[in-house]
Amino acid sequence: MSGRLLEISGLKVHFRTDDGMVRAVDGVDIGVDGGETVCVVGESGCGKTVTAKTVLKLIDMPPGKIVAGSILWQGRDLVPLPPVAMRAIRSKEIGFIFQEPMTSLNPVYTVGDQIAETVRQHEGMSRRAAMDRAAEMLSLVNIPNASRRVHDYPHQFSGGMRQRVMIAMALSCNPKMVIADEPTTALDVTIQAQILDLLNEMKQRLGMAVLLITHAMGVVAETAQRVIVMYAGKVVEEATVHELFARPMHPYTQGLIRSIPRLDLAATEHRRLEAIPGTVPSLLNPPVGCRFAARCRHATAECSAAEPPLREAVPGHKVACIHAEAIAA
Amino acid sequence: MTQYLIRRLLIAIPSLLGISVILFTVLALAPGDPFEELATNPAVPPDVRAQLRASLGLDDPIHERYVSWLLAMLRGDWGYSFVSRIPVDQLIMQRLPTTVAVIGASQVLALCIALPVGVYAATRPYSIFDQIANTLAFVGFSLPTFFTGLLMILLFSITLDWLPFVYSTNITSSGWRWWWDHIRQAIMPVLVLGLFQGAAWTRYVRSAVLDVIRLDHVTTARAKGLPESRITMRHVVRNAMIPVVTLVALQMPAVFGGAIVTEQIFRVPGIGSLLISAILANDTPVIMAVTFVFAGLVIFFNLIADILYGWLDPRISYR
């Protein structure tokens, strides 16, 4: 356990709203090893983005609050860390790539300025050296004419190019880990593949770990080594990619995998795309017991009685469902 | 950029022409006669009066009078006052520096209040500081300047007797004393105008900063590990200045208008009081010239705003 780069355990993040406490993240454990890619999947509102942002304390506090749990970064807990120490970790040790490349860059500064700013903050470089580094980073993420384009403003780049800039920025200080929060969601499909390839390539070249937040199972299959499935603020299943796709044990994961459109079947079987019935429960008053029970076709009275713990059903495969073995079989 | 400036200045010509036509027509249609006083003066016989009118061209049709005014203006001849017989450009040059100094100082004061207070309040929304600043700002811009001006005169000039309440044009002292006397009499008008403007702008700066502070790129800046002060100054305030610059520039005409009232209260011998006395005396050349100077200032500030705008926001290009 101690060898892990990032070890989130029992993390609870709640948000105070006018209606009451929203338990956006309600006891989440995520571990990332050095050089590993871990995917966190789940539908919108399941708490995956909040989890990711909480690692760098980028959520607004208040209204957000870390109620319980620890975030161990190389053995050091980030939760009680004062802002100054937190700043030294942001970008320098953990880079962050945001979902919206169109709005995540400041429109009034050149992209070179914005990358150089990060470098100067952490490496204490001269302005010129930082600009050179920025140009280097841009060419690393395959932006043509990088040395000229560092002087361009964000509005002179397309969405995909801006996401490359964001990646360049996140990687500019050689972080040990990058958190990518749905980095391809706002992009069109052909660009999505390019950005994922770029992330994989960067990871291979620079040897950093990646925590990839996504809602697309396709992205998971393409990039991850390990997958964590989240549902309604909780982790419901965790396994290696291969294991997860071959033997999904949680009914929610099975539903997610079945809801992937499949071209090979559609032509012969005229199968309708399967959706998971129902919607995510309110996180204001989450139901007692299994939170997925209301949407689960395998649910029994037992499911709503007590919350199923996340247990290791098969070595290396954790699941939070009491019927997991029966369902998977 | 130079090309853009030249084009903007060329566009200003038709607007100035339009303004002058409207002004001239309105003044010509307005009742009143600059020689009213002479009519009651038994020493001036009616035929002399008629002769005077004819010599000044007052009986010509409006369009002829306008054309001759325009031609004179183009030659740089601003005419002279019907009342005092002093050339108009001299009158204006006497008065303009005072107005520009008082308005300029008050606007600087307003910005010095609005920027720090607005930014600080917005970075801590709903804090005690924010609540107090908001309340004071609300009170500040709800009170008209003629009211606060009178209150100040009552307090500082009459009760406490610290400051003079009438602006003096012939200060006899010299050296540092001369500067001090000038500053002393400018304090109240500058405060009244500056606090009023500052209150309005504080609210505007606060909301502009609040709009920017929740944008994604501010979170990006935070994720970069920048200190909070740098995020505020570089990534929030800079972006929030774009709408503020527009507002400040567009309010300049209103500021000049408001200054006329304040100048009356404090008897500031500025261009505003010149305009008022000229209107009361039907002194057409002076009215035309003063309003023309106002129009020119407004166009000038709009141009400044557009230039600042392009400097602040690279998405805007001068074409």
Features:
heterodimer; A: 329 residues; alpha/beta; Rossmann fold; eight-stranded mixed beta sheet; four-stranded antiparallel beta sheet; 12 strands; B: 319 residues; mainly alpha; MetI-like fold; 2 domains; 12 helices
Could you please describe the fold and organization of this structure?
The complex is a heterodimer of chains A (329) and B (319). In chain A, 35% of the residues lie in helices and 23% in strands. Chain A is α/β, with parallel strands linked by helices and 329 residues long. Chain A has one domain (6-84, 94-101, 176-328): Rossmann fold (3-Layer(aba) Sandwich). Chain A has an eight-stranded mixed sheet, with helices on both faces. In chain A, strands 2-1-4-5 form a four-stranded antiparallel sheet, with helices on one face. In chain A, helix 3 crosses helix 4, helix 4 packs across helix 6 (159-171) and helix 6 (159-171) runs parallel beside helix 7. Chain B is mainly α. Chain B folds into two domains: 2-74, no CATH class; 91-312, MetI-like (MetI-like fold). In chain B, 77% of the residues lie in helices and 0% in strands. Chain B has twelve helices and no strands. Chain B starts with a helix and ends in a 7-residue tail after the last helix. Classes of the chains: A alpha/beta (329), B mainly alpha (319). The interface between A and B is medium-sized, with 28 and 21 residues.
CATH-derived topology of the largest domain in chain B: MetI-like fold
- Give me the CATH fold name of chain A: Rossmann fold
Note the main sheet of chain A: 8 strands, mixed
Helix content of chain A: 25-40%
Overall geometry of chain A: globular
Order of helices and strands of chain B: HHHHHHHHHHHH
- How many separate helices of chain A? 13
Please tell me the overall pLDDT of chain A. Answer: 88
